Amino acid sequence: MYQSPRRLCSALLQRDASGLRRLTTPGLRRQSPPPAAAPRPASPRLLAAASAASGAARSCSQTVCSMGNGTSRLYSALAKALNSSAASQHPEYLVSPDPEHLEPIDPKELLEECRAVLHTRPPRFQRDFVDLRTDCPSSHPPIRVMQWNILAQALGEGKDNFVQCPVEALKWEERKCLILEEILAYQPDILCLQEVDHYFDTFQPLLSRLGYQGTFFPKPWSPCLDVEHNNGPDGCALFFLQNRFKLVNSANIRLTAMTLKTNQVAIAQTLECKESSRQFCIAVTHLKARTGWERFRSAQGCDLLQNLQNITQGAKIPLIVCGDFNAEPTEEVYKHFASSSLNLNSAYKLLSADGQSEPPYTTWKIRTSGECRHTLDYIWYSKHALSVRSALDLLTEEQIGPNRLPSFNYPSDHLSLVCDFSFNEEPDGLL
Ligand SMILES: NC(=O)C1=CN([C@@H]2O[C@H](COP(=O)(O)OP(=O)(O)OC[C@H]3O[C@@H](n4cnc5c(N)ncnc54)[C@H](OP(=O)(O)O)[C@@H]3O)[C@@H](O)[C@H]2O)C=CC1
Ligand SMILES: [Mg+2]
């Protein structure tokens, strides 16, 4: 019987100089690299099984790659197929994993495999949970949500131009272990990911064996498809722990801007907590990137808000929206979310002294054009219906280092954001 990975580790409570209580999770920090002769498992059994389980998808993408431009055509057709309502509700039909590979995984065993693959890498960065608890205690366990743009493999290697990042740090076989290690370290109940271009061959098979139910919605014209040897389109993915939540409904949304269909997508799902029977909506999105597209992002944000109004029946159901908005807090799209009738607040503001300021950065990289340090990623939540009990601190400038991200230590140019939520005992009218 599968057990929630969270239950496998205990958390220690510490108080730092600022007076904030910090929760540290012992045993999850990779120790300094062991000597070269350190014992390693005979074979990475679980990681290898994930690849085997998605053999159909992988062999398909490999065959297609040798066809040059055909790659884009085939995956465009695939993306269109996924856009159709029947397919988008049942994307699993694209792969039929061997039932043997759906056996539950012990998260500790997978973590050990990841660490063995990463044994030459520098130690994991230490990040602490900051306790933000308000006075209202909850009898139910919190809902831990992770927001993370994990960096599409094809974009990282082929398009992003991270000029200070060594190419070896971008190798998928190791980078995927850093990503999995981050997920296993924080054990979210819900995972909201952007730039996922290894859903079918890595995340879906592995995370399903860890007890998650996943949904993937690729971008209609993913820029990954322009990269040689790509692994398919990138898109948003949403995973939730099946032992904690029941799926009530799910919508794959292609965002519009001024009535035009765009290349950006969102997934919105209504979940019911099995412990409390409370329902809430969780959404993930990745808005249009780059300067010059501010009005476009604003229009996409309005479209997403309108969709979420409908799904939450005019804010009757509490809402959590995770995303790489590609917008600083000064942008219009941010202001739309902050002032929406959905009554949303941005969770990471609560880490600031006055609770009013976003963190100084959620992404930090060096491109040919120079250094890019921005706050673009957010976790919005219904401020009357939900409370943020804790939030994972960001990496410091010193931890990030002079070459910025991604790096041998950290697999993406965006930091993961992780929050623990609980429901407030509020009447519906205050949502
Ligand atoms: N075949 C066709 O007919 C069409 C093809 N396309 C393809 O889609 C692409 C555009 O797609 P769209 O979704 O609008 O892309 P976006 O502009 O939203 O960006 C795509 C990715 O590029 C990253 N990015 C942001 N800034 C830079 C930068 N300065 N240099 C390199 N990468 C960056 C973003 O990462 P982050 O979010 O982390 O910043 C994002 O994941 C086109 O380049 C084309 O390849 C698009 C339309 C039609
Ligand atoms: Mg990116």
UniProtKB/TrEMBL annotation:
Keywords from the UniProt entry: Biological rhythms, Cytoplasm, Hydrolase, Magnesium, Metal-binding
Source species, domain of life: Eukaryota
Renumbered residue ranges of the record's region Disordered: 20-43
One MF term in the entry's GO annotations: poly(A)-specific ribonuclease activity
Enzyme class label: hydrolase
Alphabetical list of InterPro entries matching this protein: CCR4/nocturin_mRNA_transcr, Deadenylase_nocturnin, Endo/exonu/phosph_ase_sf, Endo/exonuclease/phosphatase
Matching SUPFAM superfamilies: DNase I-like
Organism: Zalophus californianus (California sealion)
Reported function: Phosphatase which catalyzes the conversion of NADP(+) to NAD(+) and of NADPH to NADH. Shows a small preference for NADPH over NADP(+). Represses translation and promotes degradation of target mRNA molecules. Plays an important role in post-transcriptional regulation of metabolic genes under circadian control. Exerts a rhythmic post-transcriptional control of genes necessary for metabolic functions including nutrient absorption, glucose/insulin sensitivity, lipid metabolism, adipogenesis, inflammation and osteogenesis.
Gene Ontology CC annotation, any one: cytoplasm
Named cofactor requirement(s): Mg(2+)
Record protein name field: Nocturnin
Listed Pro residues bias regions: 32-42
Oligomeric form and interacting partners: Interacts with PPARG.
Domain Endonuclease/exonuclease/phosphatase: 146-414
UniProt-listed Enzyme Commission number(s): 3.1.3.108
Record lineage: Eukaryota, Metazoa, Chordata, Craniata, Vertebrata
Primary location: cytoplasm
UniProt catalytic activity: NADPH + H2O = phosphate + NADH; NADP(+) + H2O = phosphate + NAD(+)
Subcellular location: Cytoplasm
GO terms under biological process: circadian rhythm; nucleobase-containing compound metabolic process
Feature: compositional bias, Low complexity: 20-31
CDD domains according to UniProt: Deadenylase_nocturnin
Family note: Belongs to the CCR4/nocturin family.
